[in-house]
Write a structure and sequence with these properties.
eight-stranded mixed β-sheet; five-stranded mixed β-sheet; binds 1,6-di-O-phosphono-beta-D-fructofuranose; binds magnesium ion
Length: about 280
């Protein structure tokens, strides 16, 4: 299994090198929408097509699913890869951080969180880095010329939280969630929100804290996709010693019925996730 997982991560790193190099010429919007009804950028399409092609070429990869396409692309193999090819891609217009998210499952999507055997993300920041989680080992890499070099072989969430960032418009937040945010502010945490989940979660991984995209008044399921965004990022943060939640339970305990299903997503230090869940439960 570990050879397969490393082959998937090597492939994602290789594609990430190419994605990075073509971004400047793929900042325009395409006519098409993805299955979540969001307009695609040329870069979303490029990253998705390259990942599908290269990952399905690996003998052990039996299917490829992505935020940018309807169904599964199937082959034969024991492992199933679900990707957000370009996370936070609207940041390409404003030249801010973006990422690529990958979840490796031993069941075909729609799959439960506990079918994840590994997960990782690439962060296209001032430098390109990659964070992978396999079991309880979380590793950070520098990605250069499409290859990985270890920067930190044992990434753990800092014990003292420093940053927070929550998506959605504050007037659309449920009252109980707004109460929790007030408490987080009063706790001296500072706001860091950039609009790309990978970049925002990487701040939490670096400084400690909490990131979330909550349930909204007109959209109780929130915005983020469980299979492509919530599950893999929850797996990584939990492996680094943190916690995840949909407001009630760990994201890894959830099974989508549709691969594009959305869920409220919260990840970060476990004490903050506990406080969030109890504040929301008290309001019931
Ligand atoms: O623009 P908003 O509402 O703050 O949403 C930001 C969130 O949406 C996303 O951009 C969705 O990801 P995609 O770009 O992959 O659709 C997350 O990365 C981010 O956390
Ligand atoms: Mg995304
Ligand atoms: Mg995306």
């Amino acid at each position: 299994m570990s050879d397969t997982i490393e082959a998937v991560f090597d492939t994602v790193a290789a594609v990430a090198g190419d994605v990075r190099s073509v971004l400047r010429s793929r900042r325009s919007y395409e006519a098409a929408e993805n299955p979540s009804g969001e307009q695609q950028l040329a870069a979303d399409v490029y990253a998705d097509e390259r990942l599908e092609e290269e990952l399905l070429d690996l003998p052990a990869v039996g299917s490829y699913a992505s935020e940018e396409r309807d169904g599964l692309c199937e082959d034969s193999g024991a492992y199933h890869v679900a990707c957000d090819p370009l996370d936070g891609s609207s940041n390409l217009q404003s030249n801010n951080g973006m990422g690529t998210i990958v979840g490796i499952y031993d069941e075909q999507p729609p799959a439960p969180g506990d079918a994840l055997v590994a997960a990782g993300y690439v962060l296209y920041g001032p430098i390109t880095t990659m964070v992978t989680a396999v079991g309880e080992t979380v590793t950070e890499f520098l990605v250069e010329d499409g290859t990985r070099e270890v920067l930190n072989e044992s990434v753990t969430l800092p014990a003292e939280p420093v940053t927070y960032g929550f998506g959605g418009r504050a007037p659309d937040w449920p009252e109980a969630f707004a109460t929790f945010v007030d408490a987080v502010e009063a706790d001296r945490l500072k706001l860091r929100y950039g609009g790309a989940m990978v970049a925002d979660v990487n701040q939490v991984m670096t400084y400690g804290g909490i990131f979330g995209y909550p349930m909204l008044a007109d959209r109780p399921e929130g915005k983020l996709r469980l299979q492509f965004e919530g599950h893999p990022m929850a797996y990584i943060v939990e492996a680094a010693g943190g916690a995840s939640s949909d407001g009630v339970q760990s994201l890894l305990g959830k099974t989508p019925t549709d691969i594009h299903e959305r869920s409220p997503v919260f990840v970060g230090n476990d004490a903050l996730i506990d406080d969030l869940e109890s504040t929301l439960a008290d309001a019931q």
